[in-house]
């Protein structure tokens, strides 16, 4: 029997259309689900929508609609988005479906019967956008009562409520988290959950509301609806048929291998959810991974700022592969990352159009021209063939290693290293020269085979990340439908491409984009959102007679600390910092880069060795300024080629807006000295 793998996304509030930040989680889960399927797992991938709660009821009322009348079209829009992005989910759960409601009611009743839930009175504060309870001490500030998570106003509530005895399970949960380091990932967030929430002690949680009615009713007391987070979290087992007539999926797939969630909702998943499961005597999920946020240059995406980007707009213009590739490549999954239109267009141009697109088209053209479109057999071996082959053979293992740890960006970087190596192989072997003489025809055959084979391996490996490009590449290589040559296993074995395959050059895999035109397009596409944000703000100000402080309808919390810069990074431990090797280096020579106005080429003396570094500082320093300076070098950075010149490290500089100053040290400090 195949091993199983159960993966879930959070279920989204259908209070607004989703933005690329939400799409990011779903794409990441999809890459993981596809990767596991390729590896032979029996995968179950769940996503869905979280449709109850006060926020949704209020949002629908604003539009003069009944909740479902408002929600249904949004859910259709979301499903269409997943369709456009080729999200391979196995089930889409809606919390308004009877199959879910039924399980939630049974769960609630069971906990009530066994005394884990009791009736009491709640007096405290409630954040409607986050659907979260807070105590007075947690949310009292000089500016009033503010949600510590999202920074918006909270409402004071006093209600007769049902409570869940969270404190009863607190020690067991702490023990579980401590004994299972992989349970909460990444590590830094695990510590945050332990220190900020568990160690200070848990209060009993209010698990019903009686001041609105858009929710699942408490079966024995229908005046109350079940707290939306209890309702929502249960989706992960109700979708599998837990406590239903057919619980075969539950038995097959539970416990989940991974719940992937944003860092803002990690608390609900690592505290409320496991405690609920413990009380039900259900095994805990194996891992909960809290990923970072996708930010805009001016901070978190938010309707009130008008900086949200509609993913459909990007997909329609640039294709789903481009959007999927960008998000998975650009951002380190555990950390926050910034979407800038510039980096988006550049990645599409450099990585997709140039690196892989061009490689395929050049190779297909040459095989058509020199071998009538038939892939020749390799006739000899040697260098640089061997180094290309050995890199290709080890790439699959590296990709797998990173995927296991959700390091999508690193996995892609390894595939692109192979793509880059293959491009370099063309420069090294110069096939156009080999084609000039009959004597070198055998060598030319080897080169052509190696190029096509290396592309085949790359195309098999990109399958978890991109869904359309692999088949297009196989079509051009003549192996579309060849299960063996396109299987995941075959990516680890050199020689899977059958000689004799017919190559046919088709349209470009990824068209090259005009940077200025595309930047203007993306800017224009957010203009409407910005206009609307301004209008809404004016309306709210007018209603209140003062500037608005809350935005109850947005599904996006603003960052709590408004003063924190948009590019602020997650906290790291000293061990992470210790991985960076910083050393004093002296500039001994410096020249302008022959092909790039912005770059200088520096020769550095590290005391124990010499290094060449290419640096983008030509606008601020002349080569003459640089000679003699003692700078700080990131000495263990992987070398890269920048515009054809090798750069073995990076020098540090402070920059703000249009200013830049190099970080330098006193002359007396010896070259090679460690900076820490
Ligand atoms: N309905 C709850 C989840 C219940 S799961 C049992 C919810 N919904 S949400 O629609 O507000 O958010 C869904 C997910 O989107 C969360 O994981 C959240 O972290 C994520 N993101 C929201 N904005 C995001 C970014 N800007 N970037 C990355 N993830 C983003 O919370």
Automatic annotation (TrEMBL):
InterPro entries with a match to the protein in the record: aa-tRNA-synth_I_CS, Anticodon_Met, Met-tRNA-synth_bsu_C, Met-tRNA_synth, Met-tRNA_synth_2, Methionyl/Leucyl_tRNA_Synth, MetRS_core, NA-bd_OB-fold
Gene3D superfamilies xref list: 2.170.220.10, HUPs (3.40.50.620), Isoleucyl-tRNA Synthetase, Domain 1 (1.10.730.10), Nucleic acid-binding proteins (2.40.50.140)
Catalytic activity: tRNA(Met) + L-methionine + ATP = L-methionyl-tRNA(Met) + AMP + diphosphate
Any one GO BP annotation for this protein: methionyl-tRNA aminoacylation
Motif ('KMSKS' region): 300-304
HAMAP family found in the cross-reference section: Met_tRNA_synth_type2
Known role: Is required not only for elongation of protein synthesis but also for the initiation of all mRNA translation through initiator tRNA(fMet) aminoacylation.
Subunit structure: Homodimer.
Name of the protein: Methionine--tRNA ligase
Species name: Brevibacillus reuszeri
Taxonomic classification: Bacteria, Bacillati, Bacillota, Bacilli, Bacillales
């Amino acid at each position: 029997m195949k091993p199983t793998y159960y993966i879930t996304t959070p279920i989204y509030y259908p209070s607004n259309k989703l933005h690329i930040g939400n799409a990011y989680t779903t794409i990441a889960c999809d890459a993981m689900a596809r990767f596991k399927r390729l590896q032979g797992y029996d995968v179950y991938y769940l996503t869905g929508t979280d449709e109850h709660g006060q926020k949704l009821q209020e949002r629908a009322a604003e539009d003069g609609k009944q909740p479902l009348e408002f929600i249904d079209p949004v859910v259709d829009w979301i499903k269409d988005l997943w369709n456009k992005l080729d999200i391979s989910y196995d089930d889409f759960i809606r919390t308004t479906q009877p199959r879910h409601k039924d399980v939630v009611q049974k769960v609630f009743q069971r906990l009530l019967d066994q005394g884990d839930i009791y009736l009491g009175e709640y007096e405290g504060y409630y954040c409607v956008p986050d659907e979260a309870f807070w105590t007075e001490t947690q949310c009292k500030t000089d500016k009033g009562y503010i949600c510590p998570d999202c920074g918006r106003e909270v409402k004071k509530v006093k209600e007769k409520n049902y409570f869940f005895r969270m404190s009863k399970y607190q020690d067991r949960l702490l023990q579980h988290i401590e004994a299972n380091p992989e349970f909460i990932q990444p590590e830094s967030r695990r510590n945050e959950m332990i220190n900020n929430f568990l160690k200070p002690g848990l209060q009993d949680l209010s698990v019903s509301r009686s001041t609105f009615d858009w929710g699942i009713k408490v079966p024995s007391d229908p005046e109350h609806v079940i707290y939306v987070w209890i309702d929502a979290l249960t989706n992960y087992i109700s979708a599998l048929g837990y406590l239903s007539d057919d619980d075969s999926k539950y038995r097959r797939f539970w416990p989940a291998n991974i719940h992937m969630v944003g860092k803002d909702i990690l608390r609900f998943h690592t505290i409320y959810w496991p405690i609920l499961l413990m009380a039900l005597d259900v095994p805990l999920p194996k891992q909960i991974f809290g990923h970072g946020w996708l930010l805009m240059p001016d901070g978190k995406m938010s309707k009130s700022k008008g900086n949200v980007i509609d993913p459909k707009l990007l997909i329609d213009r640039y294709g789903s592969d481009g959007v999927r590739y960008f998000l998975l490549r650009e951002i380190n999954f555990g950390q926050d990352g910034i979407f800038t239109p510039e980096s988006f267009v550049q990645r599409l141009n450099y990585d997709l159009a140039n690196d892989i697109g061009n490689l395929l088209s050049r190779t297909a053209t040459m095989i058509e021209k020199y071998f009538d479109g038939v892939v020749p057999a390799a006739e000899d071996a040697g260098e640089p063939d061997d180094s290309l082959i050995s890199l290709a053979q080890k790439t699959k293992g590296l990709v797998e290693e990173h995927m296991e740890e959700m390091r999508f960006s690193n996995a892609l970087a390894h595939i692109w290293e192979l793509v880059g190596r293959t491009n370099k192989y063309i420069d090294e072997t110069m096939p156009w020269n080999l084609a000039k003489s009959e004597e070198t025809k055998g060598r030319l055959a080897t080169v052509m085979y190696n190029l096509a084979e290396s592309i085949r391996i790359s195309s098999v490996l990109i399958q978890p990340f991109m869904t359309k490009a692999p088949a297009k590449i196989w079509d051009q290589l003549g192996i579309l439908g060849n299960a063996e040559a396109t299987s995941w296993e075959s990516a680890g074995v050199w020689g899977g491409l059958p000689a004799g395959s017919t190559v046919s050059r088709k349209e470009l895999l990824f068209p090259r984009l005009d940077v200025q035109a595309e930047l203007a397009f993306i800017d224009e596409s957010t203009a409407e959102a910005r206009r609307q944000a301004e209008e809404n703000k004016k309306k709210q100000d007018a209603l209140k007679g003062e500037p608005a402080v809350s935005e109850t309808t947005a599904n996006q919390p603003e960052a709590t600390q408004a003063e924190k810069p948009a590019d602020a990074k997650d906290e790291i431990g000293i061990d992470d910092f210790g991985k960076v090797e910083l050393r004093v280096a002296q500039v001994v020579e410096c020249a302008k880069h022959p092909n790039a106005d912005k770059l200088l080429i520096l020769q550095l003396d590290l005391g124990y060795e010499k290094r060449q570094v290419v640096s983008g500082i030509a606008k601020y320093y002349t080569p003459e300024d640089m000679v003699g300076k003692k700078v700080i070098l990131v000495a263990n950075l992987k070398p890269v080629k920048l515009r054809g010149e090798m750069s073995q490290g990076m020098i540090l500089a402070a920059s703000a807006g249009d200013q830049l100053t190099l970080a330098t040290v006193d002359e007396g400090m010896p070259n090679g000295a460690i900076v820490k």
